[in-house]
Amino acid sequence: MEPLTAPMQISEAARQAAISVDAIRFYERRSPLPKAIRTEGRFRLYTAVEVARLRFIRQMQSLGFSLSEIRQLLDLRERRLDACHEVRDLLKAKLGTIRSKIREPETLERELSLDLWKCNQELKHRTNHAARACPVLNAPVGTNGGKEC
Questions:
Q1: What is the overall mean pLDDT for the chain?
Q2: In what order do the strands lie in the sheet with 8-9?
Q3: Taking residues 78-95, what's their average pLDDT?
Q4: Which of 127-132's residues contact partners 24+ apart within 8 Å by CB, and which partners?
Q5: What is the pLDDT of residue 149?
Q6: For a surface tag, which of 34, 55, 83, 122 has the fewest beta carbons within 10 Å of its beta carbon?
Q7: What is the CA radius of gyration of the chain?
Q8: Is 98 within 8 Å of 62 (Cβ atoms)?
Q9: What are the angstrom distances between the C-alpha of 144 and each of 57, 91, 111, 119?
Q10: Sequence-ordered alpha helix ranges (H) in 31-83
Q11: Please, are residues 70 and 32 in contact by the beta-carbon 8 Å criterion?
Q12: How much is the pLDDT for 1?
């Protein structure tokens, strides 16, 4: 259990969580962070619990989780003792998404390299023969995105 500490204003909470004051306000508007209690002078006050929540939000965002996914994780973190299955499923889904995003540029690189090779082959052919249609432009629709030689 964390020791009780005096509530802190937004600038101190931001410093302790290593995020900006604007980020805290944004999280309050978008709901991963509950609205802060306020002083009579309307200053927001935060506890160590909210700072820990802010750190968790920042960590999950750095791992690529959306605010919606972070809200799910926070809900599981706060309401469920036995949440490992759900957390594992969320992590597996995120990992699958990341792996897919990694494969996309690799696939694009292969396709571009192949198209460049086709163009080079055609240009070599033209040194001794009549020009033919560009093999990239004449490929079936959807196979090369209409790239030119």
A1: 89
A2: 8-9, 44-46, 37-38
A3: 89
A4: none
A5: 54
A6: 34
A7: 27
A8: no
A9: 40, 34, 7, 12
A10: 48-62, 67-79
A11: yes
A12: 47
Confidence at residue 137, expressed as pLDDT on a 0 to 100 scale: 92
Domain coordinates in residue numbering, the chain: 8-65, 80-149
Q: What is the CATH number of domain 8-65?
A: 1.10.1660.10
Which tokens is 99 given? 């792996």
Distances (CA, A) of 52 to 60, 63, 73, 123, 132: 12, 17, 14, 62, 66
Give residue-wise pLDDT tens across range 9-68. 999 999 999 999 999 999 999 989 999 999 999 999 999 999 999 999 999 999 999 999
The tokens of 48 are what? Answer: 């160590």
Contacts with 62 (C-beta within 8 Å, 6 or more apart), sequence order: none
